[in-house]
Amino acid sequence: MICRRRILKLLYVLFFFVSCAVVYNSYTKKQTQAPYCLGTRKQPWLPPDVCQDIKNTIAISEVKKFNPDELIEQVEDLQSCQWTGNATALRAVRSELHKCCDAVRNLLVTQENTHIGDNITYETQKHKHIEVTEEIHKMFPKTSLFSNKPIRSCVVVGNGGILLNSCCGSEIDQADYVFRFNLPPMNFANDTGTKTNLVTANPSIVTERYARLHERRRPFMDLVKTFEPAPILMAAFSYPSTTDVIFKVFYTLEEFGSKQAVIYFHPNYLTNLGLYWKTKGLAGQHISSGFIIVSMALEICDKVTLYGFWPFDEDTDGNPIPHHYYDNRLPKLGIHSMPSEFFFYSQMHSKGILKLKVGRCF
Ligand SMILES: *[C@@H]1O[C@H](CO)[C@@H](O)[C@H](O)[C@H]1NC(C)=O
Ligand SMILES: *[C@@H]1O[C@H](CO)[C@@H](O)[C@H](O)[C@H]1NC(C)=O
Ligand SMILES: *[C@@H]1O[C@H](CO)[C@@H](O)[C@H](O)[C@H]1NC(C)=O
Predict the structure, then answer these.
(1) Is the Cβ atom of 361 under 6 angstroms away from ligand 2?
(2) Does residue 52's CB lie within 6 angstroms of at least one atom of ligand 2?
(3) Alpha carbon 203 to chain centroid distance?
(4) Which residues fall within 8 angstroms of residue 341, CB to CB, at 6 or more apart?
(5) Which of 7, 93, 109, 167 is placed for a possible disulfide with 37 were both Cys, Cβ 3.0 to 4.6 Å?
(6) Which of 32, 157, 186 for a ligand 1 pocket mutation test, highest count of atoms within 8 Å of Cβ?
(7) b vs e for 82-102, b when ≥16 Cβ sit within 10 Å of the residue's Cβ?
(8) Which GO MF terms are attached to this record (predicted)?
């Protein structure tokens, strides 16, 4: 009898603590959200058969024939549909990408895949190459960043203005691995999260904003630190004219004793990936770094979610949005074909290969 009462008492105490923990948890979760993030979802969900129709329409359409205005509307509608992954479809894409490009082994120039005395051929100028001296070889990482074992969940954070006021930060931070582009400002935590595992940098940022690192370099290091501990990924062997400034980034991080690495895209990987997507109908001059990283993520992650990819100047409610979540500088025309790349993202979303998130995260 006494024993039973004791157990009951114990259960009460346990129950008390568990409910306290639950209440505390939801309270702190609310506390870490900015006030504008505390709303609730307004749009109703669409019926499953309507959703399936939209997905089927996108899945069978072709990149050469799609109508951007129609696609915008369809993708907006899909945000009110349940997304379901299709492991079979992902496996098929992964195996194709593995065959053409093999990101695990070839994404980066490493000491494993490149030896002293080798010549690295430039991606955009095949008649130019750089000889790998002992000094240059030392600047390469020993091995690939990735093992053959897939990462469970990856998030690729584009820099699109659609992220502004999205409140997607906490969702982004829950991923195992977060990719970002071109050293973006990190002071938008509620919208973009705080975590980074890999960040790319275009040489133009170093040239234009940091005087090619010929002057004071601490401001650049302060920027790099906001991505700790992520390595900085740069295309050192795409254009001969930018190799110097990219090596300068390496020297600067080394001189400042940074624990972050500078790593380099392998030009052959970029060439092969470009050819692969060309066979799929992507005719743009050069695929964007966003498209490169998404392709790579499909090879190494079991789940890929995209945020901040929306190459249009209005949000899903028709309100004007800036080009980036942090500024409204427009890209140079004619370099990438963002709407075509976006077509592929939405097609892969429809087929359950990746999840494309646009709009707000509640
Ligand atoms: C969101 O912003 C609030 C301030 O408005 C801040 O206290 C909180 O830490 C931020 N949350 C995240 C996840 O960054
Ligand atoms: C998943 O993808 C495979 C291959 O693309 C396809 O045959 C199958 O019908 C899809 N499954 C569902 C539930 O959509
Ligand atoms: C690399 O290129 C140089 C010419 O610049 C050539 O002499 C050398 O044989 C090449 N090395 C290899 C391994 O192809």
Answers:
(1) no
(2) no
(3) 19
(4) 282, 284, 287, 288, 290, 291, 311
(5) 167
(6) 32
(7) ebeeeeeebeebbeebeeebe
(8) alpha-N-acetylneuraminate alpha-2,8-sialyltransferase activity
Confidence check: pLDDT of 341 > 90: yes
Q: Report yes or no: 96 and 276 within 8 Å, Cβ to Cβ.
A: yes
Q: Using alpha carbons only, give the angle 89, 91, 96 rounded to the nearest 5 degrees.
A: 100
Q: Any idea which of 150-164, 232-246, 307-321 has the lowest mean pLDDT?
A: 307-321
115 CA from centroid of ligand 3 (Å): 12
Instruction: Tell me how far apart the alpha carbons of residues 227 and 145 are, in angstroms, rounded to a whole number.
Output: 16
Is 89's C-beta closer than 6 angstroms to any atom of ligand 2? yes
Q: For residue range 306-320, list pLDDT tens digits in order.
A: 999 998 888 888 889
Active site residues: 336
Atom of ligand 1 nearest to the CA of 170: 13
231: amino acid identity, one letter: P
Confidence of residue 11 (pLDDT cuts 50, 70, 90): low
pTM for the predicted model, two decimal places = 0.90
Q: Is 86 in the pocket of ligand 2 (CB under 6 A)?
A: yes
C-alpha to C-alpha distance for 109 and 126, rounded to whole angstroms: 17
Which of the listed residues 52, 54, 83, 88 should we mutate to test ligand 2's pocket, taking the one with most ligand atoms within 8 A of CB?
88
Sequence-distant (6+) residues with CB within 8 A of 47 are none
Strands 129-131 and 119-121: antiparallel
Burial class (CB in 10 A: 0-12, 13-18, 19+), 150: middle
